[in-house]
Amino acid sequence: MIHIATISQIASEANVSSTLVSRVLNNKPGVSPTNRARIQSIIKKHNYVPNAIARTLVTQKTSTIGVVMETLLNAFFFEIVKGVQDMAAEMEYNVVFGNGDNDLGLIMDYIDYFSQGRVDGVIAHYTRATDHNNFFSILNRASHYVLIEGDVPGEIINKVQINNFEGAYRATEHLIKRGCKNIVHFAGEMKWQCSQERADGFIRALMDHSLPTENALIKADFLEEKSYKLMKRMISQNNIPDGCFAAADKAAFGILRAMQEHGLSAPEDIAIIGFDGDEPDTRSIVFPKLTTMRQPFYEVGREAVRLLVRSIEDPAAIPVTTVFNAEFIKGDTA
To answer: pTM of the full predicted structure?
Structure first.
């Protein structure tokens, strides 16, 4: 039979009150050195571990944050995870992650699960441009929450976003200032909010500089292989742009692969700018250093935790939207 000691039993053995034992467990003042040493010795003897569930019932606080990512299987999002973990540790919170596996139903199930008193607040990474009402109805069950990247139109909530429109505009304008006249955009799938915002920023930059927008959008869905095939077809049809803004670095690497196979180089033949600060899927090819718009994902993760803890500790705090700009990283392709 395994005997698990309780605070009361430890107090009885030490001949002190349960309150004094609790002070020692929580490293609080008000305990004499003699009593503290005796209590710690008994705690060690019994291998006593505080019951987190019981403590939560008393304090009404778990000191835990639930984080639901659209996917935890893509290394692209690891910087968000690292930022969340580091900031949570600094603010003395534990973190529990849920992998949404790019399944909206699973994402909402995780949020619902976390919202049942299992954590103090929820951080949700949600980038879809649809299903806002269904998603928000679940998210709103959490006492405290922060949304990363996405938005819920018409709702004032804590959220951390990337200014995709501004980043896309700057990237396109850089190509224009290089002298590019025939610029295309390898766009992401439009079910993602960031894809829409980057496409909008690209089109606005072309319009502001009186450049043609017809047939300027190419649906590449952020994929390296698809972008590679699309660019090969464009080159074979002699439909070669002089500038290309890719909505993701992976798409840009696919474009560069196709160019390399046809003897074209960047930026001499086609100037290329990506978006993300990502790594290529194809590691067997040495790519030139890509000019890109880097997303500050580590900072996004840290800010999400800061906003969530602020909400937990001050429920009356007015919701805040923090927007990060993408950072222009000059490479060799534009």
So the answer is: 0.81
Residues 6+ apart with CB under 8 A from 191: 128, 129, 130
CATH number of the domain that 170 lies in? 3.40.50.2300
How far is the C-alpha of 183 from the C-alpha of 192, rounded, in Å?
22
Asked if 118 and 196 sit in the same domain, the reply is: no
**Residue in the block written with tokens 């923090």:** 322
Q: Closest Cα to residue 331, out of 281, 288, 277?
A: 288
Phi and psi dihedrals of 217, rounded to 5?
-95, 125
What residue type is assigned to position 306 of the chain? R
Residues 302 and 158 in one domain: yes
From 199, 255, 195, select the one nearest 227 (Cα to Cα): 255
Number of structural domains the chain divides into: 3
Q: Which residue has the tokens 């224009």?
A: 176
**pLDDT value of residue 54:** 54
Residue that is written with structure tokens 């006492």 in the block = 143
Is the pLDDT reported for residue 52 higher than 70? no
pLDDT at 55: 56
pLDDT tens readout for residues 218-230? 999 888 999 999 9
C-alpha to C-alpha distance for 100 and 252, rounded to whole angstroms: 27
Question: pLDDT (tens digit, 9 = 90+) per residue, 279-325?
Answer: 887 776 778 899 999 999 999 999 999 999 999 999 999 999 999 99
Reduce the DSSP state of residue 247 to 3 states and report it.
Answer: coil
User: For the chain, where are the E strands, in sequence order?
Assistant: 64-69, 94-99, 121-125, 145-148, 159-162, 183-187, 217-219, 243-246, 271-276, 291-294, 321-324, 327-329
Task: Show the domain range for 30.
Answer: 7-50
**Residue 267 DSSP symbol:** T
Q: Identify which of 248, 163, 250, 167 has the alpha carbon closest to the alpha carbon of residue 202.
A: 167
Structure tokens at 220: 């590449």
Residue 334 included in any domain: no
CA distance 72 to 63: 22
